[in-house]
Amino acid sequence: MDDLLQEFIAETQETLEALAGEVVAWEADPGDRDRLDAIFRFFHTVKGSCGFLNLPRFERLSHAAEDVLSEIRSGNRSADPATVSAVLGIMDRIAELAEAVAVGAALPDENDDLLIGALSARDDKGSAPEEGPAASPVAGQPVRQGGAQAVPRTIRLPLSLIDQLMNGVSDMVLARNELSRQLRERSGDPELESAFERLSTCVADMRDAISKTRMQRVDRLFTAIPRMVRDLGRELGKRIDLVLEGGDVEMDREMVEMVVDPLTHIVRNSIDHGIETPEKRRALGKPETGTLKLEARQSGNQIVIEISDDGQGIDTQKLVEKAIAADRLTRDAAARMSEAEKLDLIFHAGLSTAKQITAISGRGVGMDVVRANVERIGGVISLDNQPGKGLRIMLRVPLTLTIIPGLIVRAGGLHFAMPRAAVVEILHDNNEMLRIAEIGGAKIATIRSVRHSMIDLEDVLGMEKLPQSSPRTIMVVRSGTGVPYAMGVAAVDNHEELVIRPASPLIMASGVYAGMTLPDNGRPMLLLDAAGLANAAELPNIADDCARRQAEEEEAGEAATEMVPALRFEELSGERRLIKLSLVERVEDIDADLFGRSGGRAFVRLDGRLVPVVNGVHSFDTPHVSALRIRDGAQEACYPVAAVLDIVDMPIVPDMVAMQGVLSGVSVIDGEHLEVVNPFALFAALPGEALRAPSRGRCVLADGDDGWTREILAPLLRQAGHEVVLGLPDDAPVDPRDIVLSSGPDVAKAAEILGCRVVQLRASPRPSGPQDGSIYRYDQDALMAAIAGAGR
Q: How many CB atoms lie within 10 A of CB 292?
């Protein structure tokens, strides 16, 4: 019976928490039958369970509420504010009783008859809802949170067990990282590395599963808000339209519990100090109903919660006068303060803009405690104040005790962590596709014709940039404003699974860190915040950048020649030409053995596919060929060249138009006449259907029963486009064009007798002697070259 009772109490408390907001939303829309049915089912379930659990007070209260709701369902009674308030009162009393039963305390001895009697009371106007200032704060303005949500069925586990599991998997991740580092420092055994990869996959799966047990939807934060807004609005005579967004965002359970109190205090302040009464709003030309909006979203490794209202905002001059009156500030110091410094006074203890002390606020104990609580969990609070128009408060709290993929970067002799999800691209500063320039004291990085604002991590953090012999690393980082930027660091040393924990409030207040982590070397490391770094460096956002670019274009005028970035290169035949840079996907060196011809057309084998070669050349004198990978959006082609020279700006229309073959004309760049490649003619000359590889011999894997051969070697060869046969055929003859791959000398001799080529493999990285002609089985380049040589 004790287990049944505890299960009943737990389910009752969970459902009550979810239904408080549903009752308020139902009051705003009495025609919502689904919400009414959900509320009725709750009381009906409580009443039915109380009989055999011997809970007479629960049964009496729920039965009374059920009777009233039944009348409303049948149409004999309306859901007026008085009835809704009485139903909420019954729910509050059931919650008190459930809490007392849960902790084993004596039941409160309040008189239940008053609550049950309130259910029978109606408004003076009968079934019509109240009018005037005391009406429901959300009357006619429903709580917009995506409709009614069913309470999910769950299995309850002790929180201590979940914490123990999470701590255990965090230690497993750190141990896995340490083992990975040890394996990298020693000559690896392929079988040991394969076993480690399986172990790593299992740890990752377990990590993800256990992490989900700690996560809760932000709905948990929002459940009590509608009821609070309703009650405070009725008490203060204010009409409020509540908007809730982002309830499906998930965050750590501990963070949910720690953010509840600060969020509650902010909402109460917004209703009391911010949103005006209907009469005052009408006099100001505002709608009588104020708007309070709560929005949650995930930004990188942080949860951002915004609380905004369209009230009167904060009068910073009142704050200054209060501070002067309390001897916290002199008038001379106040005259030198910026608007932001004046606004920051709201976080000083003992200061309030309230004219009088009420039961809700005005005692000067508020925003200072809110900021202290937020910073204690590694979060940051910021204000966006618009006097007379409203206030927006933004809480940024970390996803604590989560495990994320991260990069270990080095700058100024120290190591920092960067979330891998925030990094778009990594390249070195000696890359031919990268140009770095300084314009007006700011750095601009141009990568494949795309310009990015650039910062050096050492400059943002106030560190010395140490000299280094190797190239610096440039990371393209995705910022919170939506505009990627380039960040220079000394190097990217490693990538690991990182256990994220909150950093100290002093560190988090800097705005450039999202927490701390403990990598496999055991030394604490700070986690960089991509959006915080962009803000600290004052990088432009989307709106600023677009406005600046538009102004520049308008200033230049329509008569100016339109220029586009172009790649200047040298053809294999010696001509120097231009091609529009936006067509070039990448420049790379390709093994000459990968080029060939099929059906009279030249091709190159890239990533297991046959890619057409635009100029028809397929044989070369050098082992490696420089090539442009070009694409028209859907079709890809390879353009072999002698050399890539540089990136220049060329007119979008050539200086001399001369359509001939794949050329569109000639442009003069830096006094040099350069032919311009015509992309239309270039892609029009490509085959309309996919190329097929020429007929060639099969790869016969003699050790077909071996696990490594089946699971690793065979898939590799198939991806490279080879036909694979497992084991020597018993009945079918071996074609002389076939290539036999084997690790045994006996099979190799038998294959040679059959007249086919042989590639012999060995398991050791080192040959057994100078006469050993075998190939190490994990040397992919040598393996592919040997197969290509055997097939000739």
A: 25
> What are the angstrom distances between the C-alpha of 511 and each of 196, 455, 527, 532, 685?
38, 16, 11, 5, 54
Half-sphere exposure of 688 (CA within 13 A, CB side): 0
> Going edge to edge, which strands form the sheet with 302-309?
239-245, 289-299, 302-309, 390-398, 380-386
C-alpha 45/C-alpha 540 separation (Å) is 57
Task: Give kind and range of the element (H or E) at residue 588.
Answer: strand 584-591
CB 499, CB 403: distance < 8 Å: yes
What is d(CA 390, CA 411) in angstroms, rounded to the nearest whole number?
42
Torsion of CA 32, 37, 43, 46, to 10 degrees: -140
The secondary structure element, H or E, covering residue 608 is none
How many Å apart are CA 418 and CA 405, to the nearest integer? 9
DSSP one-letter code for 471: P
Strand-pair partners of 446: 435, 451
Amino acid in position 278:
P
Residue type, 544: D
> Residue 275: how many CA atoms within 13 Å on its side-chain side?
30
| Residue type at position 348 | H
Over residues 336-386, the pLDDT tens digits come to 888 888 888 888 766 665 555 454 554 334 677 787 777 666 677 888 899
* Contact of 247 with 217, CB cutoff 8 Å: yes
Q: Of 263, 310, 306, 305, which is closest to residue 284 (Cα–Cα)? A: 310
**Residue 633 falls in which region: left (phi positive, over 0), alpha (psi -120 to 50) or beta:** left
Amino acid at 205: D
CA angle 719, 723, 724 (to 5 degrees): 90
Indicate the residue type of 517: T
| Structure-token pair, residue 712 | 């690793």
Contact, 730 vs 704, CB < 8 A? no
Q: Which helix (H) or strand (E) holds 150?
A: none
- Answer positive or negative: Cα dihedral of 650, 652, 654, 660: positive
Residue 689: count of CB within 10 angstroms of its CB: 5
Backbone angles phi, psi at 700, to 5 degrees: -95, 115
Torsion sign across C-alpha atoms 318, 324, 330, 331: positive
The Cα–Cα gap between 136 and 712 comes to: 68
DSSP 710: I
Distance CA 128, CA 137 (A): 16
Residues 6+ apart with CB under 8 A from 631: 583, 585, 637
Q: Model pTM?
A: 0.46
For 315-327, b where at least 16 C-beta lie within 10 A, e where not — what string? ebebbbebbeeee
Q: Cα 400 from chain centroid?
A: 15
Helix (H) or strand (E) run with residue 637 in it:
strand 636-641
Cα-Cα end-to-end distance for the chain:
82
Q: What are phi and psi of 56, to 5 degrees?
A: -65, -35
Give the mean pLDDT of 182-197: 78
pLDDT (tens digit per residue) in 616-672: 777 788 888 889 988 887 788 899 998 888 888 888 888 777 777 788 888 888 778
Helix (H) or strand (E) holding 525: strand 525-528
Tell me which residue of 670, 429, 642, 486 sits closest to 566, measured CA to CA. Answer: 670
State whether residue 716 is helix, strand or coil: helix
What does the alpha-carbon distance between residue 238 and residue 312 come to, in Å, rounded to a whole number? 14
